[in-house]
Design a protein that fits this description.
Layout lengths: L3 E6 L5 H14 L4 E6 L9 E3 L5 E3 L1 E3 L5 H9 L6 E4 L7 H14 L3 E6 L9 H9 L2 E4 L2 E2 L5 E2 L1 E5 L19 E5 L1 H9 L23
Parallel strand pairs: 1-7, 1-8, 2-5, 2-6, 6-7
Antiparallel strand pairs: 3-4, 9-10, 11-12
Helix pairs in contact: 2-3, 3-4
């Protein structure tokens, strides 16, 4: 029986890596996954899902007006679809979450959505709100705050580490940084004016060549 899954976390918990691994697992078994990514996420390239560790795969871009149920129907006219995987699913609209639930209920195709739960102000994204309400199964992917506590929140900070309290919910690129923190640290940084501690990746030799899942 197919289900609608929502895998959520703060940033840098490995959501995209897990999505790409799931896609690889389906392909390894001779099955065909259909991947979606939001058009507005152009950090690497539109129409690709790319993880921080260098894995990437081609995906169908979706915008605010994309009917995802119709997109799956059109794909089925040409190719089999054994699973639907959605990256950055916090950017889905209410209607698109409903359409994905119809992919499960009408077509009996499992749908796995991966995304953030809350924005930099501690508010639910639209897609996440409706996935939390309608998904058959919820799974939190865990990551760690610099304090050592579990990170459940995200703050948008300036170059000095101070929280930005206003701005658009959706902002790709720019000079701001996003940091995953615990709820306690979120309150201290966002409401208390405390500077967040950046954690830079350790220096190493040349990184390996990116792998591909195309």
């Amino acid at each position: 029986m197919a289900k609608l899954y929502f895998y959520y976390s703060a940033m840098n918990a490995g959501k995209t890596t897990l999505l790409l691994q799931s896609a690889w697992n389906y392909r390894e078994r001779g099955m065909r996954p259909l991947l979606f990514s939001p058009q507005l996420d152009d950090r690497y390239a539109v129409g690709y899902i790319t993880s921080r560790i260098g894995l990437h795969a081609e995906a169908q871009p979706f915008g605010a007006e994309t009917d995802l149920l119709d997109a799956v129907h059109r794909e089925l006219e040409q190719n089999p679809v054994h699973c639907v995987l959605v990256d950055e699913s916090q950017f889905l609209s209410r209607d698109q979450v409903y359409q994905l639930s119809e992919v499960v209920d009408q077509l009996n195709i499992p749908v796995l959505c991966f995304g953030l739960r809350t924005d930099f102000q501690g508010e639910l994204f639209s897609g996440s709100k409706h996935l939390l309400a309608w998904a058959d199964e919820l799974q939190e992917l865990k990551t760690i705050c610099h304090t050592g506590r579990k990170a459940t929140m995200v703050v948008r900070v300036d170059e000095h580490g101070y929280a930005l309290r206003e701005g658009s919910q959706v902002e790709i690129g720019g000079n701001e940084r996003y940091v995953s923190v615990s709820r306690k640290e979120f309150k201290a940084v966002f409401a208390g004016g405390k500077r967040v501690k950046f954690i830079e990746p350790p220096e190493a030799g040349d990184p390996p060549e990116p792998e591909t899942l195309l």
